[in-house]
Amino acid sequence: MKISRQSGLERRDLLEMEDMLRRNLVDFFSFSGHALYFPTESAPATPKLVPQERRLLLPLARQNRLLGVFMARGVRLREIRPLLPVLPAVAALCLDNLALVKATRTDALTSLATEEAFFADIQQQALRVRAFLDDPAATGNQSAPLHSLCFGLVLLRLCNGKETALRVGYASENALLRKLAQACAADLPEGVQAARVGRHELALVLPVGGRMACHELARAALDRMETVRLPDPLTGRSIRPVLCAGHALYPQDMRGAEMRLPMFEQARRLMSLAGLAADVARDGMAGTGKSRVMPFARILHEGGVVLQSLQGACLRVSLGRRAKAAEGMRFAVYSPEKGRETGRACKGEIVLLQVEESGAVAEILHVADAANMPAPGDGLTLLDPASAPASQPKTHIVLRASDCAHGAKGESLCGYGDFLKRSGFEMERSARFTLVLVRLDRAGSRACAGAFRLWRSLVSGSGGLGGGVAPFGGRYGDNSLILFHSGATPEDVAPVYRRLCECLAQRGLGAAAGVAGYPFLRYTKAETRDCALKALEYALLLPEPKAGVCNSLALNISADRLYSLGDVFGAVEEYKLALLADKTNVMALNSLGVCMAALGRRQDARRHFLAALKRGADGPLAGQTCYNLGAICQSLGERRAAGHYYRRCIAVVPNHSFAHIRLGQMCEERRRPGQAKRFYERAAALEDAQPGNLCPARRLLAGLAVHGRQQGEARELLREALLRNPDDAAAMLALARLYLNGNEDPSLAEMLARRSAALRDCPEAWQTLARAMRVLGRDAEAQLAEARAERLP
Hints:
- This is Diguanylate cyclase domain-containing protein.
- Pfam families: TPR_8.
- It is a single chain.
- The chain contains 29 helices and 22 strands.
- It is of the alpha+beta class.
- Among the domains are: 5-104, no CATH class; 115-297, Alpha-Beta Plaits, CATH 3.30.70; 303-362; 401-550, Alpha-Beta Plaits.
- A 6-stranded antiparallel beta barrel has the order 12-13-16-15-14-17.
- The longest helix has 22 residues, at 263-284.
- The protein is globular, with a radius of gyration of 31 Å.
């Protein structure tokens, strides 16, 4: 098979596929360790064996160009000597294999990554984020910046690709795609990977950064791509690309249930969210001729559109569950010519009644002008639940007492709009009530109706539950019920819903119930539905029967979700409410301490950790709490206390690798490298015994090797660290320094330092980058990097 020029190997390819190269060579001869060198001069032209050290230097040359030197350590002399004449052919064969692998990962038309290679990279990025969220201690001494708790995916779409192909032919369309790909990849930040993910779509993955960084990346790529022109082969007129972009963040834009899916599924779900955002951007730019970028998170706020007018003052809108729409959300309606930006009066207000996967049915609550009703094409803007109507309506929906009396005995299952009217009226009259959400595993009106009949019989058998108006309920989406109990407490109704879930399970229909009461803490009546949703989220984690009350544990789980989405401040407020509901909640105390540490409030963090340890000294969280206390004490300079808590952590959890690492760092600070090495080696052994457990043990061992002037061993350890964690910014930086100190290829040192700076914006990375640039003779760029380093704390 002939290898194309596009798959030609570069030195950086050897770094990225080093493990594959090692596995290929070990099929021909055995060795105990290895390292890659990139000498700029005095490189061996043929394989060189050093018998005294049992080392082999194997040049890696391709197309008459030296790419690097593979150093194999611990070779067997009797085995390697007969192979010396054929080793150049072996090396060439291995390099051909690497080139073939690179070719399979590279799109032939655009020279960007293929879709499958891109998804594999997304999965690795997702694993990195989840690894930190599962163990925040993995960042070492410093708390991770909030922007590193996520990564972004940008989808760039050529909207007129099919039209171009029909107009000027597929060859010209391919030429346009090739030019667009070149413009897209021309000036990408280090660490950003570009790929072709569809016939007319390109994608970018940003390893770290928030929505603003994604938006700026998408905008800059579109600006470069918009300058591309392709002459029509017949008329000579320039063909202008019509472009749009959408972007999504992981894990912020993922739903809770999606986070439990395999990474294969999560990567493709994230791509679909970015695609949905690009769809909305394309629809919003119709007729304007200007490219548009749409974040997925803004679709719900300003990306909705009225699709169809239905009977009974109802509308079909474009917002569905994919856009995170939910029943009960209220939207203002604007005509297209009177957009949101003009500040002019809206046409009316609607509420979502039934949300489907890609759309929803909404009811018109009021209109500003009866002669100007909401119509297809009108835009939607999300209203705050506690806000007043978007405009003063001229046509009001008036709720009469007789409307609430209808169905007061709970004999019929009403729609969500009717339920809102009834419950709103009853909430105003009730000083105490309970709201319940029941979620069924099966969607459909028959399932909901059967569950409602069973609920009605159970409530009747319990004496009605509460005084005043009898309980009533309504539909809440395709697979849920929402139920109201006036004058009842959650403790009164919880047994009924446990029994309801048991009975439904016996009939083959799984169910979960979230129970929330008013008054509860500082939540308002309007926020009771949100509390019921939190209780439902808690109930889904319980064993059968899945009936959960909005209590301290439910708030704790809600706060955990906020923290996993990067909303640390929201998580802090939620953990505080969990403690307000139950001051003995050790999980909330420990998690609150983690949040305070992430925000840099170390004294507050220590106070919360000490309280958690005092109340749960024998509990399952004692080991992690001791570790957290040790980390806080170490950051405050209290080394003796830190050592005490780390050892106490190891006594409770012997396989806590990061506690060993912290003790090793403390030994290193006291200039005891022998003891530090033993702790690091234990941590490395624990990492090997627990696949997926990423820790910096090998990187720290490499640091000890550098101080001991064992450069070869340090290089090998750093490469092993990067093979286990390709996003280890500190290992990249250390390896870049080794290349510079060893007078090796400075372009590889520049690449590693640039990637390190992209992952962790610190002065050391920019200083190393500036040093590499000066070696390359790029003094002006080096000065910019040095200025960047000086601006950082």
